[in-house]
Amino acid sequence: MTTETMTVADERIVTLEYTVHLDTGRLLDSTGHCGPIAVMIGAGQLFPALEDRIAGMRAGETRELRVPPEDAYGPWHENLVRDMPRDRLPPDLELTVGEEYRLKSPDGKPLRFRLLEIKGDTVRADFNPPNAGQGLVATVTVIAVRAPTAEEARRGRV
Questions:
Q1: What per-residue string of b and e applies to 73-108 under the rule 16 or more CB within 10 Å gives b?
Q2: Shortest CA distance to 139 belongs to which of 44, 2, 28?
Q3: How far apart are CA 157 and CA 42, in angstroms?
Q4: Which of 39, 31, 47, 49 lies closest to 10 in space, CA to CA?
Q5: How many angstroms separate the CA atoms of 112 and 102, rounded?
Q6: Which pLDDT score, from 0 to 100, does residue 157 have?
Q7: Of 26, 24, 6, 27, nearest in space to 15 by CA
Q8: Of 127, 49, 121, nearest to 85 (Cα)?
């Protein structure tokens, strides 16, 4: 099979350009600053949902791909929004509604939350991942598709 007729599939080297936005329009990632990248499909170098959606594309093809929240950062869960006593947070921590915080719990586990509200001695915090509930919109252009070299095949990556 010549490289002109190869399609994106597992264990093929694909050179591509992409731009990924959240549904809100916020830019997440782009190859615009670094130029095209080459990846081995199936080697975990790309976001899995994006890799699945470019399967079958050919060199020169551009697609706009939509990735629903459950295949991106996951759904937003109401039960991960909680009220907690202010005194469970470090006393010197300056709190600002809307800010993201990363702390360690008393048992050493990392905690990440966004502060939603301060109500007297209580704070309302959202422990969902920052982009939970957001889908993705990716514009992907495949520049080239080829078989891996013997060394790339041995290493399992470009």
A1: beeeeeeebeeeeeeebeeeeeeeeeeebeeeeeee
A2: 28
A3: 9
A4: 39
A5: 4
A6: 85
A7: 6
A8: 121
For the stretch 40-99, pLDDT in tens is 999 999 888 999 999 999 999 999 999 999 999 999 999 999 999 999 898 899 999 999
SS (H, E, C) the chain: CCCCCCECCCCCEEEEEEEEEECCCCEEEECCCCCCEEEECCCCCCCHHHHHHHCCCECCCEEEEEECHHHCCCCCCHHHEEEEEHHHCCCCCCCCCCCEEEEECCCCCEEEEEEEEEECCEEEEECCCCCCCCCEEEEEEEEEEECCCHHHHHHCCC
Reported as a pLDDT band with limits 50, 70 and 90, residue 1 is low
Angle (nearest 5°) at CA 128 between 126 and 130: 100
